[in-house]
Backbone:
């Protein structure tokens, strides 16, 4: 089950990235071109939010009970958490960065429900989504990162 959840978690990164980039582009164009906020914009932001939260739940299971989870793994003898690149990344950096990014995505979606001008909705959502994207890109275990890297497509 752990390997299935890990593959699902890794695949969901692509769903989130596509939805988040689309949300950024739409919110930027809405802000810059003075477009009206539509039901389609709200749905896109909602799907971005839902996919991020589903991935968060799978990730929380992985970090707590997965193959190298905090509750099922003991650090090797003499290893200090913050000095070990692998455990520091998967137990501290990745969860912290992703939780912050999901909070920002949630705040961005929250703009859809606010009774403010459409320009303000688009502008604030753009910045929330943009910073969330930066955090996600910085804390994903990309293949080029030594020790912590994962393949672009899981199982390949």
Residues:
């Amino acid at each position: 089950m752990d390997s299935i959840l890990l593959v699902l978690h890794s695949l969901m990164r692509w769903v989130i990235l596509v939805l988040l980039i689309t949300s950024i582009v739409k919110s930027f164009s809405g802000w810059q071109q003075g477009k009206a906020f539509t039901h389609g914009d709200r749905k896109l932001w909602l799907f971005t939010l839902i996919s991020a939260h589903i991935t968060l739940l799978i990730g929380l299971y992985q970090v707590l009970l997965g193959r190298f989870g905090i509750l099922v793994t003991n650090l090797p003898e003499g290893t200090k958490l913050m000095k070990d690149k692998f455990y520091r990344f998967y137990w501290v950096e990745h969860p912290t960065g992703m939780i912050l990014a999901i909070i920002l995505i949630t705040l961005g979606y929250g703009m859809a429900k606010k009774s403010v001008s459409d320009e303000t909705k688009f502008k604030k959502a753009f910045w929330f989504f943009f910073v969330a994207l930066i955090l996600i890109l910085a804390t994903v275990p990309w293949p080029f990162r030594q020790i912590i890297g994962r393949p672009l497509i899981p199982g390949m």
